[in-house]
Amino acid sequence: MDKLESDRLLIRPISIIDAAFMLQLMNTPGWIGFIGDRNVKDRTAASNYILTRIIPSYHSNGFGLYLVLLKSKNIPIGICGLVKREGLDHPDLGFAVMPEYERQGYITEASKKILEFAEKQLQLPTIYGITTQSNIAAIRVLEKQGLSFQQTVQLPQNKNEFLLYAKALHKEDVAP
């Protein structure tokens, strides 16, 4: 994917030049509270995270997490994309946004474009979304995109229990 565009947003692959932004985003209370502390405390660690955790997914899976920018100002506000997680049969929709851009519909808008990409370009049969029970904002985004609650799951190497949401992207497919 080169880039996606919506009315207000540009969505493009994350690169090493985005390390300063990723450092900020990964240390917001929302990221640490809902996604988890990845111990990214300086720009070098953010660069390494991009090089070892984000970029390889583009090559091995054909998708990954993408930078979400405000089209009008060309500034990054968050990330949105697809993550292939160990313990899940299908990719899941992942997202995070800077606190000052929460509750403005940006992630819902970005998620819609990512799901269109997943269905039309990637031809994925099903998309998952996982979140914690306390992340009401994430649950709302998933439900707005047509994902519905399936069950609680536990992922390998993670003691937390997650809510699993799913959406079949093709009429003949049935989510889990």
Give an account of the 3D structure.
By secondary structure, the protein is an alpha+beta fold. It has one domain (4-168): Aminopeptidase. The chain contains five helices and eight strands, in the order ββαααβββαβαββ. The strands form two sheets. The protein has a five-stranded antiparallel sheet. Strands 6-8-7 form a three-stranded antiparallel sheet, with helices on one face. The longest helix has 19 residues, at 43-61. The protein is globular. It starts with a strand and ends in an 8-residue tail after the last strand. The mean pLDDT is 93.
Please provide the ordered H/E string of secondary-structure elements. Answer: EEHHHEEEHEHEE
CATH superfamily: Gcn5-related N-acetyltransferase (GNAT)
How many domains? The number is 1
Integer average pLDDT:
93
Q: Mind telling me which CATH architecture this is?
A: 3-Layer(aba) Sandwich
The profile of the biggest β sheet is: 5 strands, antiparallel
Provide a count of the helices.
5
Show the helix and strand layout:
Layout: E1 4-5, E2 9-13, H1 19-25, H2 29-35, H3 43-61, E3 65-70, E4 75-83, E5 92-97, H4 106-120, E6 126-131, H5 136-144, E7 148-154, E8 161-168
Antiparallel strand pairs: 1-2, 2-3, 3-4, 4-5, 6-8, 7-8
Helix pairs in contact: 1-3
